[in-house]
Amino acid sequence: MNRVGTGTIKMLLQIAKTVNPASFPVKGERHPPRDPIPGQLRRLIRRLILVVPILLSILSTNCRMTEKTETQPPATQPDSKPNDAIAIHRRAIAIDMHADTTQRLVDEHVDLTQRLPDGHLDSVRAREGGLDAQFFSIWVEPELFGGGGARAMKRADDQIAAVKALTEKHPEIWQLATTAAEIRRIAAEDKLAALTGLEGGYAIDEKIENVERYYKLGVRYMSPAWTDSLSWAGSSGDEAGKTRGLNAFGKQVVREMNRLGMMVDVSHVSDKTFWDIVNTSARPVIATHSACRALVNEPRNLTDEMIVALAKTGGVVNVIFYPAFIEPGWNEKKKQVDKEIAGLVQRASEEELGDVAHKKLARDRVRREEFARRLPPAKVSRLVDHIDHIVKLVGIDHVGIGSDFDGIQATLVDLASVADLPNLTRELLRRGYSESDVDKILGGNMLRVMEAQK
Ligand SMILES: [Zn+2]
Questions:
Q1: In the list 27, 129, 287, 326, which could disulfide-bond 421, CB 3.0-4.6 Å?
Q2: Exposure pattern of 254-285 as b/e (b: 16+ CB <10 Å)?
Q3: Which residues neighbour 386 within 8 Å (Cβ) at sequence distance 6 or greater?
């Protein structure tokens, strides 16, 4: 849409330039210049002159605005700056803190420059949705690749290499970024910034020097645990995590991350690990894809006390888009459906002849289809309920977004892919959030946190 729009604007500007309005009689002019154009043609040209500015204004509203940073002058007069939801959305720098599309790059070899028929993210839909920066999750599933050791490291390295390859193959669309300044620059160039974060610290293989190794590979956040606890960090997803926090090594990891400027992510960690992180970290702490436990009582979500403590570090809760963690009662129903479809899922896995990663893809495909058919729809307004809750607790400066796209088997009906991101802005504006609030929620708060890491 963007390229077509820009081309059309250029064409119309050319027409406007060709038709010189100065050659027509001006009101009040006593001696109009001789008019060499016949009446019929003149009327046509006059109409064009009237229509061109209207067309230009409609088109520029629908196009990605170039004024992505405050330092750039606005393209139009300040008082004519459009204030509809789309214009506000496109002016903001939108940063999604978490998507699992990385595994699609490695396991399915998807071409992210094309509009994909499935999944939640590609560059075509990212542009439609006004996204500016994507943190690609570097996720090592311990069950498949080990909770440490060479295989876990290789799995992480393969994913990092896949993101890098994407940016090297398509620099006209994707640019690798590691800092807030780079995100701002890439957004101003109308490209997409690609960043990476480790989901679970399995790949550091209990070696402190590996934190720096991953930092040097471009990784800018790490959640110590995914759903399996490690010896040094408890997870919210297993029995061990119920009593496990950070041990001495875990605290050393957090301090090393602080030293390097790698953000500490509390999504997935146990409650005890959360408190150990908040009490150890000297830098703002983030949750990359979590929601509020006060609204949906899931261990993956944060209690009000946790949100307050995280905000005190200067950090940000990036709200996940997954109905299981934001729609009350949804996850209970999902667990029931999981039982009902267990046979179907098992069969899909057995019929898939590929490797473990492909068997998982086959299982997820069945889950996705069955969840869509059997579970109640949830809407973007529910996501904004969680944003509202965080804002009421700690103010506008501590909330952001982390979709978990391509890592979830169900989406909100009106936020079913990155292309639907403007629906979030519409709902925020409908609830009375200002343009500057929307800027902060979509990415401004995370830019601040990234800038505060060193
Ligand atoms: Zn996750």
A1: 129
A2: bebbbebebbbbbbbbbbbbbbbbbebbebbb
A3: 291, 292, 295, 319, 326
CA of 422 to the centre of ligand 1 (A): 23
Centre of ligand 1 to C-alpha 32, Å, is 72
Contact 175, 134 (CB under 8 A): no
**Euclidean distance between CA atoms 56 and 37, whole angstroms:** 25
DSSP 59: H
| Ligand 1 centroid to residue 218 C-alpha, Å | 20
Beta bridge partners of 431: none
Q: How far is the CA of 364 from the centre of ligand 1 (A)?
A: 15
Tens digits of residue pLDDT in 267-299: 999 999 999 999 999 999 999 999 999 999 999
Ligand 1 centroid to Cα of residue 413, in Å, is 20
| Predicted confidence (pLDDT) per residue in 129-153, tens digit | 999 999 999 999 998 899 999 999 9
404 confidence band (pLDDT: 50, 70, 90): very high
The pLDDT tens digits for 24-82 are 333 333 333 344 445 555 555 555 554 454 444 444 444 333 334 444 444 444 456 77
Collapsed DSSP state (helix, strand, coil) of residue 212: helix
Q: Check: pTM over 0.85? Answer yes or no.
A: no
Residues in the chain: 454
Cα separation, 297 vs 315, in Å, equals: 22
